[in-house]
Structure prediction request, 139 residues.
Amino acid sequence: MKITPDEIYSETNRLAFLATAAIERYMEQGGLKRSDIADRLGIPRSRVTKVLDGETNMTLRTFASFGLACGIQWHFGGISIENTCMSLPWGGFESPVHMTVNEAVTAVSSPCEQKEDPAYKDPDCTSAELTSCDPVGPL
Prediction:
């Protein structure tokens, strides 16, 4: 199946939107403001605002650093983003909850009704066994 440049552009924009929404959701869950992220990263609040408002490109490095500033522990568990596990510090839990990127995006898009992605097949990171996710190593 051949993918067109327009399809790549459209999918890239969709993923950038989801990444921004995920960071904002993590900030909300942790009770963090944009100024908190700016302080933790040592950057001006205006830079955080530009990134989260989509006025500037969110690179993978920016996404990773914003996530770390929210307390997310990134782990890489495979060659595709669907195989990536994250430890998310949802308030009130003594130990982190392990989620796949698909599960995190589902939680962002419908936080009250998290659904398992039927296309996701990684046996180490199933929604039934979130705490058994055993990432290979840090990103």
Summary: The CA atoms of residues 36 and 69 lie 8 Å apart.
